[in-house]
Amino acid sequence: MNRARLDETLADLDADGYLLDASQEDANQLYLSGFTGPDPFLTLYVDGEVHLLVSGLEYGRARTESTADAVERHADYGYEYGGREERYDMYADFVRDKGVESVSMPPRGPVGTADALRERGVDVAVDGDDRLGEVRAVKTDEEVEAIREAQRANEAAMRAAEELLASADVAGEEASADGDADAEPGVLLAEGEPLTSERVAEEIEVTLLRHGCALDETIVAGGARAADPHDRGSGPLRANEAIIVDIFPRSKATKYNADMTRTFCVGEPPAALRERYDLTERALSAALDAVEPGATGEDVHAAACEVYEAAGHPTFRTDPETETGFIHSTGHGIGLDVHESPRLASGGGELEPGHVITVEPGLYDPDVGGVRIEDLVVVTEDGYENLTEYPIAFEV
Amino acid sequence: MNRARLDETLADLDADGYLLDASQEDANQLYLSGFTGPDPFLTLYVDGEVHLLVSGLEYGRARTESTADAVERHADYGYEYGGREERYDMYADFVRDKGVESVSMPPRGPVGTADALRERGVDVAVDGDDRLGEVRAVKTDEEVEAIREAQRANEAAMRAAEELLASADVAGEEASADGDADAEPGVLLAEGEPLTSERVAEEIEVTLLRHGCALDETIVAGGARAADPHDRGSGPLRANEAIIVDIFPRSKATKYNADMTRTFCVGEPPAALRERYDLTERALSAALDAVEPGATGEDVHAAACEVYEAAGHPTFRTDPETETGFIHSTGHGIGLDVHESPRLASGGGELEPGHVITVEPGLYDPDVGGVRIEDLVVVTEDGYENLTEYPIAFEV
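^ Those are the sequences you sent over. The predicted structure of the assembly is below.
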């Protein structure tokens, strides 16, 4: 955590303190409290100090594991398990006990808590600028190292996926004469069985676990399914089609995320698909070339869009309702959240050294398939450093 | 989803509609929208219909995969990526377009959205009773089956963990003469290396993945670390100490969770630990005996507390500040969230058929160790059905 930057940013608030009511699933909470509480707890930042209020169950661990300056527990305010109103009374007492009469909460803070504090005379303002998110966006060297480490695990998982695809037989081809007699020609086979998205995803996930990472979801999508950027994919994969593999693991130790996408084709791709792959590689280069301090997220997005638009493909800039073409933003910040500030999209703000971002142009059409290539980079004083160490190659 | 119950419950609202602004990580959102959107989107329940508002990126998938009655996208309201205020304008337009002038939001809904709608003339009330959570608490047969299926995966993982412990050598004992010469006597050894919490957790997680489940965390905590109920455990495990294994996996297909805890001891436990284990088994029986429709969560909690209190152990009922004894609630509802309604704790409300709950008494003391035994049950018309098919045995 960049404490100096935090102090400087929160000093500007029109409130006495900054309040979070969330569990460890909230990245702001994890960042400010340094505590992995599975149930919601309060964190109050006031006068440069971080105060926690946790249940008795979490008290011992919060004192030893959190990065907070002070930890209190419900019993300190006479609260026992149960009543909702009593719980809110305790929250108001906790805040007032620190001399705080007004707090700022992030936009996604809970409205129940905000309104309950208001009813108890504490002013609650929404931090519409999401200042804590902006502080989090600029990573310290230690945070960049944590992301780099998760990215190494990501690369091991991508390698496992690519090897599984590369070693597959193809139904209907000579080498697979022993395979599943029922498989349609063109379907990939592993050990005689159709190779499915689910099977490749499992290989990725097991590899990540072996490397200390966890994840909720992985995208392994082939053919028409790969034409929907958020489709996770399912069912048998096939030769001569684009297979998008998008992996975003989280380090179990540090809680920082990595993110990378590669698109593979087993055997030769049709000409139209090859063309789209090459174009996407050019869009990636163009977008990366635009990454430097002072450039905006919008500039980087524009660089990718221009490559596609010049080739006649629609983007959200040329047609907000299009369902084919380049139909997402060029990238996003990443850290304790997979998606955080800054955005590489229309309206995306200025890049700063320490921003860790994905750059991930893609092109989609159900009739041809989907292609996406994504690298993970950190903005530096004079450009960027690419944290991705994985080759970009279509045919496997 | 129990649509009839939902309609009946939300019909009582003092508002025109019920509004969610959340991603799939929010269980209410997953339940009401039936859509796995990775970024926050709006779901509005009004006049018995569920309306979604998603980004262009999610539009295709939301139309085919969600259970909503209608899906709209940002472009339908002329919104393009970017401005925060324009985004809130779109939200207000979307709500008003359905004839809605007032909405209810759950307590953990985002205050930024609530305040922005209020500024635009839409009344926003907090659903302090968390009615949607109460609807979710009562499971349909299909939901119970999904939980049962996740529990089968859980049992496979528990078996893998138990087998790893059972097959371990013990440093300093004859059989492990070939083991790690540096390991302290009493440390468990697997293939000559100290067997750690991390290694057992990895085995659990890999087994779960092979069974279609994912999870963020697992507890494998031995010795003094097991005396903190939420400690995940780390480092070498030892013979003759209690090792708590608490697994709460989520089915990747259905998103429903299971939950189970067993406590194991490799070799003979000290008498004090054995006594605590037997007492906890009795507390579990007493609590389970109390589970039936009409009983309250407080009743079930009391049944467990009484066993411990009668044996002279502190509980939160006898000492809210105690850090040893029975220092958590007896259980919780489980479904799309690992922790949801009802609570088996002081103040916990009435149990109903269809409630799926954990029953998990435990006893903790850093000087002796921690013990917890947890089963997963569904409340039935005349009592409960235990969904757990795993033996309760201490020594392995």
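Chain B touches chain A through 61 residues (CB under 8 Å). The two ends of chain B are 41 Å apart (CA to CA).

Shout if you want it in another format.
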